[in-house]
Specification:
With 500 residues, the protein is an all-alpha fold. The protein contains 24 helices and no strands. The radius of gyration is 23 Å and the shape is globular.
Length: 500
């Protein structure tokens, strides 16, 4: 039976996504103009935010760029935002876009060194709890001085490399064979349980690492993009910023690390998955063979990558240039001195970052709707009506909830500008302004771990090529983040109430 053009177009729409998902997106596109006319742009704007979050939640069913992009285009057509606003949001976040394009690609060219180091760590550290704590703490320290997205790119590269090695061998192939590690057809029934356990093991480590980026990112001026903005508005340099945040950030860091130990010890909500013995043996054998057959050229490449990695850490710590430009320098040096000069070999490095960069710009369109329709304005106005001694913890929670719904950088931008305007108008004192600033920064960085869209690093992990391979979807990320969300939010809230 021949299909009609209409049937073929429906089949082509969103590709292999489930029919119910396709119909849901079509329903969203049809209902939005009706809600806009009947209930106004404010209600339509909140509906759009909910629809976009739904697209993120279904990331394993359909990459969010296409359905989210259609919703964003419709928002512009309906006048809920404008192309100028979207461009302004992208321009304001140009440093983040550069970071994604160049830094993630730069990390790709350090993957042999990263795989070498982390394979050694995985083999030598037998305790899963200690290994999890190491991932969480190291990510926190690195994020405090580098950037959460850069650190996330590192742990994604490591996990992808380790999984590829294990999956290749369990599929009956050699270490050097070409292999698609997203295809399980070559896996025998007797090893499928081990494969699922190894996936769960890597999911645990990825979440510990991702939460670590939030724990470290809140502490310093350079930890998260909004920290720089907040520091500039309030006039705090690196050391002062750290000291001002410490009454909240340090207790939260301690609670976060204790939570890491607790969820592993008591196997809470999917944590506690051990590395299968078969996987450990494969990694040990892989490490032994790699050490034996490593040629002088490969050893020289590892030394080069180590030197480039040292340059990366120092350049980021001392802010010699914008993060994206440092990433470009890493690409140039890591390829020039290891012989990777062919264009087609360079292109693979950008495959991971560019789809997410496009998705991020689509996300800016949703942020534009929030901005143009003043969706958060009623909440800000309500908080300012509260007694002054209640405003700091309420600001912390309000920022956290809104960041989990939308984006922590945008929420921080809106709130710090509103608070600064109130200070300039003489409505609040300098001391209260500074306390609210601490609440805004910690609020946008800590409770926002609740959802992948709350933190750019979480969203990057969710939409990475690794996520479907280790079965890490939106819902599972929310569940795995839940223990951290509860303990860190309570710790942060108590700190804003009693330690500031």
């Amino acid at each position: 039976m021949h299909k009609t053009i209409a049937q073929s177009m429906m089949d082509n729409f969103l590709g292999n996504a489930a029919s119910w998902f396709k119909l849901t997106i079509i329903f969203f596109l049809l209902i939005n103009p009706i809600v806009m006319v009947v209930m106004g742009p404010f209600v339509a704007g909140w509906l759009l935010v909910g629809e976009f979050i739904f697209c993120l939640a279904m990331a394993l069913k359909c990459y969010p760029l296409q359905p989210g992009g259609l919703l964003a285009i419709e928002a512009v057509v309906l006048g809920m935002t404008s192309s100028e606003t979207v461009f302004h949001e992208a321009e304001a976040n140009f440093e983040v876009i550069l970071l994604l394009i160049f830094m993630v690609a730069g990390i790709f060219f350090l993957k042999e060194l990263l795989l070498y180091i982390f394979t050694k760590i995985m083999i030598r550290v037998k305790s899963k709890t200690l290994l999890s704590l190491l991932f969480c703490f190291t990510s926190a320290v690195l994020s405090a001085f580098l950037d959460a997205l850069t650190v996330t790119a590192v742990i994604i590269t490591v996990a992808s490399g380790l999984f590829a090695v294990y999956h290749k061998v369990t599929s009956g192939k050699g270490f050097d064979s070409d292999h698609d590690h997203a295809d399980d057809t070559g896996i025998g029934d007797e090893t499928k349980d081990d494969l699922m356990q190894f996936r769960a093991f890597l999911r645990n480590l990825m979440m510990h690492g991702a939460v670590g980026t939030a724990l470290g990112g809140v502490c310093t001026l350079v930890g998260e993009p909004q920290n720089l903005l907040i520091g500039e508005v309030v006039g705090w340099e690196f050391i002062e910023f750290f000291i001002r945040m410490a009454p909240v950030s340090m207790p939260v860091l301690a609670v976060g690390l204790l939570t890491c130990v607790a969820v592993e010890k008591f196997k809470i909500l999917g944590y506690g998955a051990e590395m299968p013995l078969a996987a450990r043996r494969i990694l040990e054998e892989y490490d032994r063979l790699e050490d034996q057959k490593r040629t002088p050229s490969q050893k020289a490449a590892l030394v080069t990558q180590a030197l480039v990695a040292a340059f990366l850490v120092i350049a980021l710590a001392f802010h010699w240039a914008e993060v994206g430009l440092i990433g470009l320098a890493v690409i140039v040096m890591a390829t020039a001195f290891t012989g990777i000069i062919e264009e087609h070999r360079l292109g693979h490095a950008f495959e991971e970052a560019l789809p997410f960069t496009a998705l991020l710009v689509v996300f800016f369109a949703i942020v534009g709707v929030i901005h143009d329709q003043h969706l958060f304005q009623p909440i800000i106005q309500y908080v300012f009506t509260l007694p002054e001694d209640q405003q700091v913890p309420v600001f912390f929670m309000a920022n956290g909830i809104l960041s989990a719904i939308s984006d922590n950088v945008f929420v921080a931008t809106v709130y710090i500008n509103e608070v600064f305007a109130a200070f300039q108008a003489g409505e609040i004192t300098r001391e209260h302004f500074e306390l609210l600033t601490v609440a805004i920064n910690t609020g946008t960085n800590i409770p926002s771990v609740a959802t992948p869209n709350g933190q750019a690093a979480f969203l990057f992990l969710l939409t990475s090529a690794l996520a479907p391979i280790i079965r890490l979807g939106y819902g599972r990320m929310v569940i795995l983040a839940l223990p951290y969300t509860i303990t860190m939010t309570i710790a942060g809230l108590l700190a804003t109430m009693y330690l500031l």
